[in-house]
Amino acid sequence: MSESMLDPRITLTDLLDLPVFREVCEAFTQAFHLGLRVSSESGQTLIESLEPNGFCEEVARLKDGRRLCAEARDRLLTQPLSGSTVNAATCFCGFKYAAFPLNYQFDFIGRVVLGPYRDGPWSPQRLLESQPQLKKEAKSLSGFAERAPQLDPELFKNAVRFLAKALDAFVFVNAKRLITTRLHLNAVMESRQSALKKLEAEPAAMLLDTENLAKLKGLF
What we know:
The chain is an alpha+beta fold. The chain has one domain (12-177): Beta-Lactamase (2-Layer Sandwich). It contains nine helices and five strands, in the order H-H-H-E-E-H-H-E-E-E-H-H-H-H. The protein has helices at residues 3-6, 12-15, 18-32, 54-61, 65-78, 125-130, 135-145, 153-201, 210-217, and strands spanning 36-40, 45-49, 87-90, 96-104, 107-117. It has a five-stranded antiparallel β-sheet with strand order 2-1-5-4-3, covered by helices on one side. The longest helix has 49 residues, at 153-201. The protein starts with a helix and ends with a helix.
């Protein structure tokens, strides 16, 4: 059996049916009004399902706001993840995020990042600790912050657990389908090679001209 066909490392892009996967992610986003990003092991964003968030848009308009948001997003997309642990993070503006890995046979193949959200009334304290120059803007930001999703911690934990199990099942089913396809292709290739070796070993094969032999090989 060809080792190259059956044993290569499976990546998330091998497994994703993007249109179907995107529908699952968008359904979750609409149910909880929570942004969701899925990235590959290398950090490439594959799915980005976002809810309109006036707060983030306002912060991005502030001086250095867009840069700070980009840096926070990059940290979320690159922080180490292990096992099935959900990592929680609080952004510089006080909003919360969560990230968990997608694994296949204990190999890390991607990550899911959820947020932003809050688990209570927004306070500008964390924002002003790192960006004291935004003291004047903090009051106006409070109005936008109240529009962001507020999730009960226990509800959020259960929602993340449900999503993780659903995505694990998606990965498992698609991995099984991919391996079955590779097994079939491997069997076809082995049959082709065996038939060609027998054909070329037959004395009668010497009577076939090159063109006819090429046509015969093309049938496999």
